[in-house]
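[Automated response] Your request has been received and processed.

Submitted sequence:
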Amino acid sequence: MASDADVEGAAGTPDGFDRLWTPHRMAYIRGEGKPTGSGADDGCPFCRAPGLSGDEGLVVARGRTVFAVLNLYPYNSGHLMVCPYRHVADYADLNDDESAELARLTQHSIRALRSVSHPKGFNVGMNLGDVAGAGIAAHLHQHIVPRWEGDSNFMAVVGRTKVLPELLSDTRKLLSEHWPSD
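Generated structure:
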């Protein structure tokens, strides 16, 4: 049996923090599931999600030209994205119907999140292009991230991880049940 000193030496210098392991994030770090090219048939998760069941694809609501889906790698609980069904990279390339419905489903996302989770604020926006920070630049998506007072605590700052108090499937179910009607 290894002594504490052997374990500490093997694991690195102790720093007084316990570790929370988030191995599911390795898929994101490695770029797994990212489109391999510029087309809809190149493995795009935003093209694939609407064809799956709500639970499997994490789709919360479906419009005519866009849909709302939970982020598989959320910044906070309830982190939604609104995406066009059409595989398009640039906001300026959306047609009028897609632009209007993207705005409406963004509003619905905020209303549903307020009803379910009572956040104190939101970050809403999109990163267009790899250099702007888009994880999947080939398919436009608008982020809706609920925020609470003090949600950026030591876990995110020091531990470089997030603690999410709810399973994505449970969040999807709650948001779907509280989705505003048109």
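Summary generated for your ticket: The helical segments are 4-11, 26-29, 45-48, 54-57, 96-117, 154-157, 168-177. The mean pLDDT is 80.
If you did not submit this request, please reply to this message.
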